[in-house]
Design brief:
Elements (H helix, E strand, L loop, with lengths): L9 H9 L3 H23 L2 H18 L10 H22 L8 H9 L4 H8 L4 H8 L2 H11 L5 H8 L3 H19 L1
Helix pairs in contact: 1-2, 2-3, 2-4, 3-4, 7-10, 8-10, 9-10
Length: 186
Amino acid sequence: MLTADAGFDYEAQLFACAAGDESALRRLYDREARWLLGVALRIVVRRELADEVVHDAFLRIWQKSGTYSPALGSARGWIYSVVRHRALDVVRQLRRDPALPGADDAVLDDVADEADDPLQSLSRGRDNSALHLCLQQLDDDKRACILLAYLDGFSQTQIASSLARPLGTIKAWTRRGLLALKDCLS
């Protein structure tokens, strides 16, 4: 199966960023920006906000690349988590201060109550991607846990509430789903 990162060393690029190599940040941006924009857009809904999230996230990646530790997870996962956390911060900020530009009620309602199936939203942009194919192979419960966590920004407690399942079950499904994705993508 094809992998999205075959032959590209994300870890080396992050370490190069930490050492001050601007071209490493450019390589990361060129490689991932369009996918990261999709992640941000899924969370903040509006394109101009998503662009801002990606911009801010790459600044943070540059500034914080020295804090990346391979022992805590993959470099690519770390990059995606920076974008996801920045997008969630923007949504929280808009909810706290609706007077901010881009904080109209319709956008906030869309973020909170989006009715699209997360798998359908993901597949719109990447119908033939390896990730999409691997996600389709997961059972519904594991897939739902992963998509709610990584696309919608839900905590495991929120996922447990949303799916009406015990927290321990959600943790197990998420872990097993992530392991299955890792195996599928490798």
